[in-house]
Amino acid sequence: MNDLGNGEGRGGGLRPAGWAGGGAGGGGKGSCSRPHFLRRGWGRRSPGRPDTLGPGQEKPTQPRPRRARSVAAMTEGFDCTKCRESLYGRKYIQTDGGPHCVPCYDSHFANTCAECKELIGHDSRELFYEDRHYHEHCFRCFRCDRSLADEPFTCQDNELLCNDCYCSAFSSQCTACGETVMPGSRKLEYGGQTWHEHCFLCSGCEQPLGSRSFVPDKGAHYCVPCYESKFAPRCARCKKTLTQGGVTYRDEPWHRECLVCTGCGTPLAGQQFTSQGDDPYCVACFGERYAPKCSGCGQPITAGLGGGKYLSFEERHWHQDCFSCARCTTSLVGQGFVPDGNQLLCRACSEADH
């Protein structure tokens, strides 16, 4: 009975690779993952170990003579479940279906490496990811051949890539610092270029622009205050920057609200106006202050400013409609006339006086 003693395999080894716990190491396209390791144990049946028990066995006692058949059954050989060869003195691997010798276990339970297509033996360190199994030495970056067994990786189009290779191939480069913009980090994109958030700075004050408005200018980027201070035109009247709109007068920029009549303060943008010296005036104020007066009606003559044509004679001026005979009111435009003191007479009226 002492020959039935268990060896080191008592309690069985670890489950076979096909039964190992845990799922895929997470990850997938564009995300970092870690593989899952499978571990196995092995046992050995050794004769001459009388007091060591196998799984589920109790310590045998001295059989009674009438139980001889049962005792004989217990002394039968400890064999491989598949090939039925004796496991005494040999390594074995315990499964729920019974003990297996190493060759039978490898042929029936070992997984095939997705990379080299060879069986992953019981004594190999095995990794699996998304239902694929690998030898430890086969689980490597597709591009640089670096081992991925103990570091994060990314699966891109069914290719396993280390972080460095993934970033080099698929991540953008920061326009400012030239470093890789790592997946998941905050970045800014403009005009087909990419920046780290902390690298996208105003070219003036060198402060991060972040989500603030900015103005591009010849490859540089400015926050609005810096751009206005450096480049924006300034109003000829108030000297403040023009951020939008505005009008041009005498080749100088003006705020629309700053271009007003010097006389009455009426806004002149979009209206006819003229100037006296450097001061702009609306038509009414200019006529009232500076325009010559018609010798006929006494009103200002604003010819060229919507006031129609006018005629002049001996430093006197008339609206075209007012240039007529002082007696018969016949228009003298294009006709001969005769001065009579401060009056102008047509020829007929002048001859009648004589």
TrEMBL record:
Residues 36-47 have a biased composition (Basic residues). It comes from Ornithorhynchus anatinus (Duckbill platypus). This is Four and a half LIM domains protein 3. Interacts with SOX15; the interaction recruits FHL3 to FOXK1 promoters where it acts as a transcriptional coactivator of FOXK1. GO terms for cellular component: nucleus; stress fiber; Z disc. Residues 1-30 have a biased composition (Gly residues). Pfam families: LIM (PF00412), LIM_FHL2-3_N (PF25076). GO terms for biological process: actin cytoskeleton organization. Recruited by SOX15 to FOXK1 promoters where it acts as a transcriptional coactivator of FOXK1. Keywords: Acetylation, Activator, Cytoplasm, LIM domain, Metal-binding, Nucleus, Repeat, Transcription, Transcription regulation, Zinc, Zinc-finger.
